[in-house]
TrEMBL record:
<dbReference type="GO" id="GO:0005829">
    <property type="term" value="C:cytosol"/>
</dbReference>
<dbReference type="Pfam" id="PF00107">
    <property type="entry name" value="ADH_zinc_N"/>
</dbReference>
<dbReference type="InterPro" id="IPR013149">
    <property type="entry name" value="ADH-like_C"/>
</dbReference>
<dbReference type="InterPro" id="IPR020843">
    <property type="entry name" value="ER"/>
</dbReference>
<feature type="domain" description="Enoyl reductase (ER)">
    <location>
        <begin position="36"/>
        <end position="349"/>
    </location>
</feature>
<dbReference type="InterPro" id="IPR036291">
    <property type="entry name" value="NAD(P)-bd_dom_sf"/>
</dbReference>
<keyword id="KW-0521">NADP</keyword>
<dbReference type="GO" id="GO:0070402">
    <property type="term" value="F:NADPH binding"/>
</dbReference>
<dbReference type="InterPro" id="IPR002364">
    <property type="entry name" value="Quin_OxRdtase/zeta-crystal_CS"/>
</dbReference>
<dbReference type="GO" id="GO:0035925">
    <property type="term" value="F:mRNA 3'-UTR AU-rich region binding"/>
</dbReference>
<protein>
    <recommendedName>
        <fullName>Probable quinone oxidoreductase</fullName>
    </recommendedName>
</protein>
<dbReference type="InterPro" id="IPR013154">
    <property type="entry name" value="ADH-like_N"/>
</dbReference>
<dbReference type="Pfam" id="PF08240">
    <property type="entry name" value="ADH_N"/>
</dbReference>
<dbReference type="InterPro" id="IPR047618">
    <property type="entry name" value="QOR-like"/>
</dbReference>
<dbReference type="GO" id="GO:0003960">
    <property type="term" value="F:quinone reductase (NADPH) activity"/>
</dbReference>
<dbReference type="GO" id="GO:0008270">
    <property type="term" value="F:zinc ion binding"/>
</dbReference>
<dbReference type="InterPro" id="IPR011032">
    <property type="entry name" value="GroES-like_sf"/>
</dbReference>
Length: 353
């Protein structure tokens, strides 16, 4: 590859853009043009490559992490303009930059949080949620980081901000063998919390135990409320991290102790139906509905949590389990596996050259 400088005109302003090589006009992407089931997913090979401005980067993606949030956009639980290129995180290389970019150079390897990462190229501002990576980083490490941003930063921020977990707290974690769940298991154990893991099979529960969970509940055959009472001597949990939504919310209301906290952050079974806030009063419960991006909106917050995540991974204190890597064109298969609860750990997409 070689470096080149070209000029473009955007909104009447001439901008110089430095590129690593000739950038194609079209690219391969996974997108939706309407809401629905997996059948609405499209793998297109002639989607336009985005044009960048003076303060933008063009990143050529190598790996992108798969998250359940893509399902919410596909189904229309979260609104989006169409066509909508899916994806929320990736690792790649800067292949072009605007002439006002001073933090990154063409050739830099980066990890970042952004929409539209299920694509060969993503346009992103230099002041966005980016991490500069070593130039000699291995492919295996790239996969791990691509799969750790959303699912790693979510528990890392939540156990500080949504509910500040203390040593000895009983904490309930749903989907405890999923990508987010396994990270919760590890971080909560490091805090000295007593994690109660909920999963759909005994095999998944054993994995959660290996990663730090202390108590196990099989959601297909155990009574979650009774088991929580048993484990906590009838008191309940200090906090519940509920990524399931509609099907578990009523149970969560029952298992959280007096003055406890419900952290509702997912819609795997659908959105929680409207309910009267008066139902929180008998036990003086707190209910929060957090999202990761609002916890890292300020640059200092992003720097704090992203650097801590990388430190935990590099030190070996946090293990990211990549269970399968799919080609970009096979995202439909990947999400069907994810939605049918066939998987544990993290799923990754490999983006074609």
């Amino acid at each position: 590859m070689f470096s080149a400088v070209r000029s473009v005109v955007s909104s009447g302003i001439k901008t110089s853009i430095r590129t690593m090589s000739t950038i194609p006009g079209v690219q391969k992407v996974v997108l939706i043009r309407e809401n629905g089931g997996p059948e609405v997913l499209k793998y297109e090979e002639d989607y336009p490559v985005p044009k960048i401005g003076a303060t933008d980067l063009l990143i050529k993606n190598k790996y992108a992490g798969i998250n359940f949030i893509e399902v919410y956009f596909r189904k229309g639980i979260y609104p989006s303009e169409k066509p909508y290129v899916l994806g929320r995180e990736a690792v790649g290389e800067v292949v072009a930059k605007g002439d006002q970019v001073d933090k990154y150079n063409v050739g830099d390897k980066v990890a970042y949080l952004s929409a539209s990462t299920f694509a060969q190229f993503t346009k992103y501002p230099q002041n966005g949620h980016l991490i500069k990576l070593p130039k000699d980083i291995s492919a295996e490490k790239e996969k791990i980081i691509a799969g750790s941003l959303v699912q790693g930063l979510t528990p890392l921020t939540f156990i500080d901000e949504a509910y500040n977990v203390q040593k000895g707290d009983f904490i309930l974690v749903y989907a405890a063998a999923g990508g987010v769940g396994l990270i919760f298991d590890q971080l909560l154990k490091a805090r000295g919390a007593r994690t109660i893991a909920v999963a759909s099979t005994d095999e998944k529960l054993q994995l959660a135990k290996e990663y730090g969970a202390e108590f196990l509940i099989n959601s297909t055959k155990d009574d979650i409320v009774e088991k929580v009472k048993e484990f906590t001597n009838g008191e309940g949990v200090a906090a519940a991290f509920d990524s399931i939504g509609k099907d578990t919310f009523e149970t969560t209301l029952q298992v959280v102790k007096r003055k406890g906290t419900i952290v509702s952050f997912g819609n795997a079974s659908g959105a929680v139906p409207p309910f009267s806030i008066n139902r929180l009063s008998p036990k003086n419960l707190k209910l929060v509905r957090p999202q990761l991006f609002a916890y890292v909106a300020d640059p200092s917050e992003w720097e704090h949590y992203s650097s801590e995540l990388i430190r935990l991974i590099d030190s070996g204190e946090l293990k990211i389990t990549i269970s399968k890597v799919y080609p970009l064109k096979d995202y439909k298969e990947a999400t069907e596996d994810l939605e049918s609860r066939k998987t544990v750990g993290k799923l990754i997409l490999e983006i074609p050259e």
